[in-house]
Amino acid sequence: MRKKVADSVSWVGKVDWEIRSAHGKEYSTHKGTSYNSYLIEDEKTALIDTVWEPYADEFVHNLSLEVDLDTIDYIICNHAEPDHSGALPVLMKHIPATPIYCTKQAVRSIYGHYHQDWDFRTVEAGDTLSLGKKTFSFHPVPMVHWPDSMMTHLSGNNILFSNDAFGQHYAHELLFNDLAEKCTLHEEAIKYFANILTPFSAIIQSRIQDFLATGLPVEMIATSHGVLWRQNPEQIIERYLQWCDAYQEDQITIIYDTMYNSTKGIAETIARGIQQHSPATRVKLFHAAKADKNDVLTEVFRSKAVLLGSPTFNKGPLASLSALTEEFRGLKFMNKKANAFTSYGWSGEATSMLNAQLIDAGFSVTGEGLRINWRMDSEELEKALQFGVDFASATF
Q1: What distance in Å separates the CA atoms of residue 297 and residue 206, rounded to the nearest whole number?
Q2: At 378, which CATH number?
Q3: C or N: which end of the chain has fewer Cβ atoms within 10 Å?
């Protein structure tokens, strides 16, 4: 069923309430998601993006109930990733001669996915396509977050179809940001940025500034996932510019794994030391093997400093911590301090190994870390408490 977005513009996508992971199992989607596709009907008719492949038949059937497929003059593919382009093979069986407007990189990606020689019309920055009264202008944004990514602006309605920029994995039937629960929307938006877009922060900042320099008015941002920004759409642009700029809040996140709760006890004691030094600083603790990875990474993104703790096991940290530092390395978090701690029996290499992994991931390590042999006695409890105080002091 179509939903009205603006005059002559309809949403014809799919709300996926059931999905609990995206990008395979790499990204948790506690709130579901949506695959946003848009139909623009002027003197010419255009379709922007489709939906994920499992919903292709449903999408094409529903679209055919809303519009004669043969009347679709243009297809705009802002991004070739299968959760956006997945219905193209089914759709193009019905309208094989319909031209697809996309970037050169998108042609390669679409062909790589589907091995079809459709009528591709490649576009570059500033190219336009008239629908009659309204006009598309195309704005490639490579590496936001794929090489083929593009945003499309619609004059008249002044809508920016932003693709993966400014989106969220958030299923919401009412479509618009002013009808969504604001705290949930913010949490899903920052999680999306932290886990997907952070490695491209400098590029995203530059691409946003390039688009703003065009002076094109934006009265609505129509994303490819989640809700659309129609009330004060500038707010999400401003947030992105903040998030791109080595973002941090007054927060320290402690992440640990533990075998017999010795490391857990150290983590909690360090947290008390941090709060003793800096009562206003938000401190959050996560068990690496139990907490949702993407939620933890979101909190790391927010933090000015991170502490990792693990028992020493097989001459190193537990696997959950090493897996996490590999995520840190890939996401390229900026301007964050860190250190490590371990509870050990007879060797204690976990602290130095975690700190080496943190340095490799781009964190600024504040010292040699903390090693506690077996469980803390009263003297070692004071040592862990002081470690928290010292770490908080070094963080400011």
Answers
A1: 24
A2: 3.40.50.360
A3: N
137 forms beta bridges with: 128, 153
Q: Is the pLDDT of residue 316 over 90?
A: no
pTM for the model: 0.96
Domains in the chain, number: 2
Nearest partner of 34 among 56, 49, 53, 19, judged by Cα: 19
Residues 190 and 276 in one domain: no
Q: Are residues 375 and 257 in the same domain?
A: yes
Burial of 309 (0-12, 13-18, 19+ CB in 10 A): buried
The DSSP code for 392 is: H
Q: What whole-number distance in Å separates Cα of residue 389 and Cα of residue 324? A: 25
214-to-35, 141, 232 alpha-carbon distances in Å: 28, 14, 19
pLDDT tens sequence across 45-96: 999 999 999 999 999 999 999 999 999 999 999 999 999 999 999 999 999 9
Residues 84 and 106 in one domain: yes
What would the pLDDT profile of 226-251 be if each residue is shown by its tens digit? 999 999 999 999 999 999 999 999 99
Residues with catalytic function: 23, 79, 81, 83, 145, 164, 192, 225
Domain extent, residue 47, equals: 3-244
Query: Do residues 182 and 277 both lie within one domain?
Result: no
